[in-house]
Specification:
heterodimer; A: 364 residues; alpha+beta; Ubiquitin-like (UB roll); Alpha-Beta Plaits; five-stranded mixed sheet; four-stranded antiparallel sheet; 8 helices; B: alpha/beta; Rossmann fold; de novo design (two linked rop proteins); four-stranded parallel sheet; 19 helices; 43% helix; globular; binds flavin mononucleotide; binds iron/sulfur cluster; binds FE2/S2 (inorganic) cluster
């Protein structure tokens, strides 16, 4: 039986997609601004989507057979197309208004601690708020905070930044045999948790870091080591018995700062050459931190609008250190640690725990 | 005096017990249905009766039943929604406490119509003692051959199971209820698929309110057409109303839907007037989720016509000047009640009960609660009122389940109708801490333009 094709028009552009395709995936075929932003949907995770509501669109015509418009905005990631359907995304003022609302809701309790967040530069919430957010906030209350929690020695959970997309829960559920990772409580006090801060012992649990759209789940082996836009992503592979062994190395010079799965243009883990989703195992991610562990395939393709591509590095050479040169071969000596003498920056103050901008009085 | 179809026998001594219930004519509908009717004929009677769901949305029950998918070899389920957690609603509790066999009887007939061999009662955790009552009734019914295998020799098997919730309002939403029944976290599912196609354990399922299922008993006994003669328009049959607040006689009343709201509040047959000789200020006529109305719009519609206690009349005027029948939780507020405070406590409830899946509801409910707290405690700003309006507007319609709407509507209606009282809380912040706004003009006659 040949696959049935449906015609769907999104923002006045018509595409043909197989029956069963969601509006979001049809829009992604068109690409660009027509594709609604998606914070919770993840094509590789079954059951994901429908929650964050950033992908809401207006269906102005249900189908050829039943042209009635849908009464409410629908989540494009969970609504399948019908033949002859007409959808408005950025051409609908209703959608833009609702989306601005969703972005505001996602941000009211977010700590906005991008300057100290490892995810900055590759954070989907940052991108979303640049595009759809407002400059000022109307929220004048204490922001919700949670203590930081270590999920084992390699992953840190900083719930305060979480947007409750449930992706990590689906990942833990679908990639690991024993589920230890879920949600406690409900409403605005709900939290991602592993029940009494259990270690997550599983070869694939590291992937929760890759699916997290924000800086709520971060790689402890990389924390505060570097800003992503100072590092260079390169595609690399190795023979691995656990996973596809195809990864992205985030390097500076010869040093491998971080290993992640490879991502596609929607920020999702890509397919590997074996056709399966390119999840990587923990040992590739956390233990193979030397260039000699890997065969480097070449620089990763990064969207030129991304801040990460600001550091052009094609043909870049490692600069020689100047100091030993002018000091006739002597290594520079550490004269003093600025933190130990400066009153300005107290290291024991956790900036991201403040529910407001830091002020000089915080350091008094 | 209207007819009583459900609570007629509620005061018979020991009606809770099988022998008394049977002596009073109980289980006749099971005999009639299983011995003389085909399952589809039962559904047909329910359709003819015009019975609308009593859980809040008012969806025609017979129509819902006929949407149930019937694939070969796949079990189907009937689930009775006894979660009853909507503030102001306590009619199902009364029914199950006093007439447990009425629910069981209705369930057997409904299960027969739907082809459900295992039916469930999902009951809110706080109704712990009712679980015992229901389980006793189920045991009695089984001992007397109304449940189990081959009931009355009809070849139809049916068992009823009671499942207790763990105390979450959201588990009254039908898909959250199904998740919870399956032993999972009570998060509403994303629809479609609807329960009629994929419900409990992925099988076709009908979820109905306790009162809806109980009403099937008189419908089968008397026939759908007879049932439809009671009431008016699309509000057929009788409706249980749980009345509470500042009235002389709070309680559960069975009304036929032809009486006016004014009669319901002031007549001695029902609420018996406002308590302590106070004046009526406002009312939430259908449980906490429906829009609150000021006294003038409650008793008369915007067109100046008498408002009646039925689905159509209560919603006359849409949300601009009307409300909803909802679940029948009738909450009356007298002149001493503060609308801002009342709205705050509702907002607090919804913040606490949001499941947290979707961003607008999770974040918006908490935000509204905080602003309302500030207004109520004399720290509000004029701009807060518009901000509240904007927040509720961005929640409504943009969420997975109707809890988001249910949280938005009370706030919207309070601002729509009681804006002066909100403003007074800002302009007279000090005074608002020691006295209430009072009745204002909320009971004044509404000027209706005379049309030529
Ligand atoms: C947040 C929420 C809570 C609900 N709680 C209840 C409830 O406690 N009891 C109930 O019968 N229906 C409740 N409902 C309505 C149910 O989803 C469903 O519509 C109803 O059980 C259908 O039965 P009916 O057609 O007989 O009314 C609730 C809905 C929502 C959105
Ligand atoms: S921790 Fe990250 S992936 Fe998990 S729910 Fe929160 S934002 Fe989503
Ligand atoms: S509207 Fe509220 S209660 Fe309903 S699914 Fe969304 S977050 Fe949960
Ligand atoms: S991406 Fe569709 S709702 Fe989150």
């Amino acid at each position: 039986m040949s696959e049935q094709l449906f015609k769907v028009t999104i923002d006045n552009i018509t595409v043909e997609v197989p029956a069963g395709t969601t509006i979001l995936n049809a829009a992604r075929q068109i690409g660009g601004e027509v594709a609604p932003p998606a914070m919770c949907y993840y094509s590789k995770l079954e059951g994901s989507g429908g929650k964050c509501r950033t992908c809401l669109v207006e269906v102005s015509k249900g189908s050829e057979k039943d042209p009635r418009p849908m009464p409410k905005l629908v989540a494009s990631c969970r609504t399948t197309v019908m033949d002859g359907m007409e959808v408005k995304n950025i051409t609908s003022p209703k959608v833009l208004d609702a989306r601005a609302g969703v972005v505001e809701f996602l941000l009211i309790n977010h700590p906005l601690d991008c300057p100290v967040c490892d995810q900055a530069g590759e954070c989907h919430l940052q991108d979303l708020s640049y595009e759809h957010g407002k400059e000022e906030t109307r929220y004048e209350f204490q922001r919700r905070t949670f203590p930081k929690v270590d999920l084992g020695d390699k992953i840190q959970l900083h719930m305060t930044r979480c947007i409750m997309c449930f992706r990590c829960v689906f990942t833990a559920d679908q990639l690991t045999e024993k589920r230890e990772h879920g949600i406690l409580d409900r409403g605005d006090h709900a939290q991602i948790a592993t029940f009494i801060q259990k270690n997550l012992h599983n070869e694939f649990i590291g992937n929760v870091i890759d699916v997290c759209p924000v800086g709520a789940l971060t790689d402890k082996t990389f924390r505060f080591k570097n800003r992503v836009w100072f590092t260079k992503p390169v595609d690399a592979h190795r023979d691995c018995e656990n996973c596809c062994g195809e990864a992205q190395l985030w390097m500076r010079g010869d040093e491998v700062f971080r290993v992640t799965a490879r991502k596609d243009e929607w920020g999702e883990v890509k397919e590997a050459s074996n056709g399966k989703t390119g999840w990587i195992c923990n040992s590739c991610r956390f233990d193979k931190k030397e260039a000699k562990d890997w065969v480097i395939d070449g620089p990763s393709k990064i969207n030129r609008h991304s801040v990460i591509s600001q550091g052009h590095y094609v043909g870049l050479q490692k600069p020689t250190e100047t100091l030993p040169n002018v000091l006739h071969g002597r290594q520079p000596k550490l004269l003093m640690d600025i933190h130990s003498v400066s009153e300005v920056n107290k290291q024991n103050i956790e900036l991201s725990a403040l529910d407001r901008p830091a002020h000089s009085t915080d350091f008094k | 005096m209207g007819r009583k179809l459900l609570l007629e026998k509620a005061h018979v001594e020991n009606i809770r017990l099988y022998d008394v219930y049977r002596r009073e004519g109980g289980y006749r509908s099971v005999e009639k249905a299983l011995k003389t009717m085909a399952p589809d004929a039962v559904t047909e009677e329910v359709k003819k009766s015009g019975l609308r769901g009593r859980g809040g949305a008012g969806f025609p029950a017979g129509m819902k039943w006929s949407f149930l998918a019937k694939p070969e070899g796949v079990p189907r389920y009937l689930v009775v929604n006894a979660d009853e957690s909507e503030p102001g609603t306590f009619k199902d509790r009364y029914l199950m406490e006093f007439l447990p066999h009425l629910l069981i009887e209705g369930m057997i007939v409904s299960s027969y119509a739907l082809g459900s061999n295992n039916s469930y009662i999902y009951i809110r955790g706080e109704y712990a003692w009712i679980v015992d009552i229901l389980e006793q009734a189920i045991t009695e019914a089984k001992q007397n051959g109304w449940l189990g295998k081959n009931i009355l020799g009809s070849g139809f098997d049916c068992d009823i199971h009671v499942q207790r919730g763990a105390g979450a309002y959201i588990c009254g939403e039908e898909t959250a209820l199904i998740e919870s029944l399956e032993g999972k976290r009570g998060n509403p599912r994303i629809k479609p698929p609807f329960p009629a196609v994929k419900g409990v354990w992925g099988c076709p399922t009908v979820v109905n309110n306790v009162e809806t299922i109980a009403a099937v008993v008189p419908i089968i006994n008397e026939g759908g057409d007879e049932y439809a003669k009671i009431g008016v328009g699309k509000s057929t049959g009788t409706k249980l109303i749980s009345a509470c607040g500042n009235i002389n006689k709070p309680g559960v009343y069975e009304i036929d839907m032809t009486i006016s709201v004014e009669d319901f509040i002031y007549s001695d047959e029902w609420c018996g007037g406002i308590a302590n000789g106070k004046k009526l200020k406002a009312c939430i006529p259908g449980g906490s989720s429906v829009p609150i109305l000021p006294a003038n719009l409650l008793l008369k519609t915007a067109k100046g016509e008498t408002r009646y206690m039925n689905y159509e009349s209560l919603s006359d005027g849409g949300f601009a000047s009307g409300s909803m029948m909802g679940s029948g939780g009738f909450i009356v507020l007298d002149e001493d009640q503060c609308i801002v405070r009342n709205t705050y406590s509702l907002a607090r409830f919804y913040r606490h009960e949001s499941c947290g899946q979707c961003s607008p509801c999770r974040e918006g409910t908490g935000w509204m609660e905080k602003i309302l707290w500030r207004l109520e405690n004399g720290e509000g700003k004029m701009s807060d009122i518009d901000l509240l309006w904007d927040i509720q507007r961005k929640i409504e319609g943009n969420t997975i389940c109707p809890l988001g709407d249910a949280a938005a509507w009370p706030v919207a209606a309070a601002i729509r109708h009681f804006r002066d009282e909100f403003e007074w809380h800002v302009s007279h912040a000090q005074e608002a801490q020691i006295r209430n706004f009072g009745l204002g003009h909320y009971a004044d006659e509404i000027h209706v333009p005379v049309s030529a």
